[in-house]
Structures are given as C-alpha cells and as structure tokens.
Amino acid sequence: MPNPYARIFAAPGAKGFTAASLIGRMPVAMANIGIITMLSITEGDYALAGAVAATFTLSMAVIAPQISRLADRLGQHRVLPAAAGAGVAGLGLLLLAVRFDLPAWTFFAFAVPAGAMPNMSAMARARWTELYRGTPRLHTAYSFESVADEIAFITGPALSVVLSTMAFAQGGPLAAAVLLAVGVLLFAAQRSTEPPARPAAAGTGGAVLLRSAPLAVLALTLLAGGVIVGAVDVAAVAFAESLGVPGATGIVLSAYALGSAASGLAFGALNLPWRPHLVLLAAVTGTGLTTLPLLVAGNIWALSAAVLLAGVFFAPTMILVMTLIEKAVPASSLTEGMTWALTGLTVGTAIGTFTAGLAVERAGTAGGFAVTVAAGALIVLIVLLSLRLLGRSVRAAEEEGARHAGAVG
Q1: Is residue 202 predicted with pLDDT exceeding 70?
Q2: Nearest-5° angle of CA 298, CA 304, CA 307?
Q3: What is the mean pLDDT of the chain?
Q4: What is the number of alpha carbons within 13 Å of residue 318 lying toward its C-beta?
Q5: Which among 11, 108, 164, 182 is most buried, taking Cβ atoms within 10 Å?
Q6: Using an 8 Å Cβ cutoff, are 72 and 198 in contact?
C-alpha cells in the first residue's frame, strides 16, 4: 500500500514550503515561555513575567487573524515579511528594554508589536488546501500539519528555556526572533505553491468569524480543547510536585504529545466514509470521556497513561475542525478562518492554565483535573448542539462541489 504521506509531498514545492513553515512556526511555541523565563531571571518577578507574556499572547490572538485576512486578500508574499518584521522588531525592542533595565511599562509596550507573528500553521494549511482541495490527500495533509504543530510545541518551549537558562537570559526570545525572520522569508519566497490573492466579495467585509456561524462554533470547539490542554499542563506540574518528583512533569506532558502525534499520523492514513461533522462528534466524545481517568490516577505512570489516552483524541479533533473550516469558509477567507480557530486554541490554553491554577490553589490537583473534565463536557456539548448547523455546512459544500464539477465537465 503506498505511503499516503509520501504522496502528498510528491507535489512540486511541497517539501520546500513545509520545511520553511516548520521553522516559521517555532517562534510561536518559543516566545511565550521565553519571555516568562527571561523576566523571571532578570527581574525575579513571576507576576511581572506572567503579565508581560499574557500581553504578548493577547496581542498575537488579536493581530494574527488580521495578518491572515490580509494574506488572503493581497497574497502571502506581500504580507508575511512585513508582519514578521514588525514581530521581530517588537521582540528586539523588548530584549533591549530588559537588557538596559528600562521601566517595566516598556516591556508591555514592546510586547504588543511582538505579537505580530503570522500563524504559519494556517499559512501552510492554506497551501495544502490549494494543492489538494476536493481530494483525499487534503485529509492526509491536514493530519501532517497537526503532527507538525505537536512537534513545534514539544521542542520549541524546551529549546527556549534551555537557551535562556544555560546561555543568557534573552537567549530564548532572541532565537525565536531569528527563526521567525528566517522561516517567514524562506516561506514567502516560494511563490509556486502560494494560494492566489482573492479580494473580498462585495458585502463580505469584516472578520469572517462574525459572518460564519460554523466557523464560530469550530473556534469555540478548539477553545474548549485548549482549556483541556492548559489545565493538563498546570495540573500535571502540581501532581508531580505533590509526589516530590517535579522533574517527572516532562514525562506526563510528553505522553500527551506522543498520543496526539501518533493518532494524528494514523488518522491521516485513513479514508473514513462518514461525514466529517459526525466523526468530529465521535472525536470530541472521546476527548470528553478520556478526561475522567485523570481524576483517579495515583502515580506518575498512571497519570502518563491517562494523559496518553487523552492525547489520542486531540489530533483527530484538530484535523476534523480544519476539514470543516475548509468546507464552511469561502476560499477568499480560508487562511483567516483557520487562524481564528487556532487563535481559539491559544486563548483556550491560556484560560485553562489560569483556571486550573486557581483550582489547584483551592482544591489541590483534583481541582485542576476537574477543570479538564468540565472542559471535556463543554466540548461535547458545543459540537452536539451545533451538529445540524455543521451538517448543513457540509452538505452545502458538497452541493457546491458537485455544481462546480458539472460546470467543468
């Protein structure tokens, strides 16, 4: 049986833009923890470090969809270098402010433009969509992208922390700025696989999130999924510390990423006969149910096994959400739509981290894992209540595809 992943990379230019996007997406995974580590070392103030990092994350959540909208309208090669330039400049100014001990308010001021980081995951998915729209290979490509995101978020934070703690305090954010510049410039230079610029149709101004109910639902779905991810991170740290083995946190979090990456690769090789909104309901149901064993894990190995099982359903959920966005959002707003969904994941992770932190303070590790259970119930409820809406979106996309095929024929 042919390797489905080898087939998607057979397209001219696919390997090149994928390699560049892997470099370009690392800074998003590195910058937040890099800012926290840098400021905790130089200022000795975790509250300040967290606040500046939160400012950066919020800025990125607001700016990234606007960058993607411009990329849809004007073309990636016109927008990405300028956006990355603003992000690199913001990070550079932040590093200089820390290096020369400027007032703390300057950290916040420079954290805002530092958030001008293009969402390279969405940019790469837009290229795959242009290559394989309407074919089974698009499902495989989205699966690969989900695994690539996992790899970035496993290696990026670890690299950033190592550079800031073992080289110099600004090392992590500096590396993020360099990788952002290099990755985006290499990506933008590859014009052959770039989706064509698509000016907005008359009457379709404003954020696509506000014009597409299915997209709003899918962004909320990933937001709830992000709450689970953020809560697992915090609760796992607290659990390991309560057992006196804080270093074992890495084992737990690696198990989550391993489960997600492995299932993403396996899911990408499948060609399921069912409609994606129905498979999404099954995936989020699995996501919700697998939060329950977290409440009863008694040691690191039991928790790692439970987290591994929970991770198995995360990548398929991501893949199916992107598949449904491709069907629900006009081609002229595809990158923006995907970026809104990924922004939902980022915001959800921040909410999960904050909420689980409060819960751990009040009720111990059980409280932190209870947040994951609540988010698991929420993600199932969101998809269940919107199933008919998503089904209509899928049918409309199928009918449009059939009309297009008939017109071409």
Answers
A1: no
A2: 105
A3: 85
A4: 35
A5: 164
A6: yes
Residue 128 Cα to chain centre, angstroms: 17
The pLDDT score that the predictor gives to residue 403 is 58
Fold of 1-6+14-190: Growth Hormone; Chain: A; (1.20.1250)
What distance lies between CA 97 and its chain's CA centroid? 29
Half-sphere exposure of 298 (CA within 13 A, CB side): 0
CATH superfamily of this structure's domain 207-409: MFS general substrate transporter like domains (1.20.1250.20)
Identify whether the C-beta of residue 325 lies closer than 8 Å to the C-beta of residue 334.
Answer: yes
- As a whole number of Å, the end-to-end CA separation of the chain is 31
Spatial CA neighbour of 233 closest among 133, 348, 62, 319: 348
Sequence length of the chain is: 409
Specify the domain boundaries for CATH 1.20.1250.20 within the chain: 1-6+14-190, 207-409
For the ranges 40-49, 71-80, 111-120, 372-381, the lowest mean pLDDT is seen at: 40-49
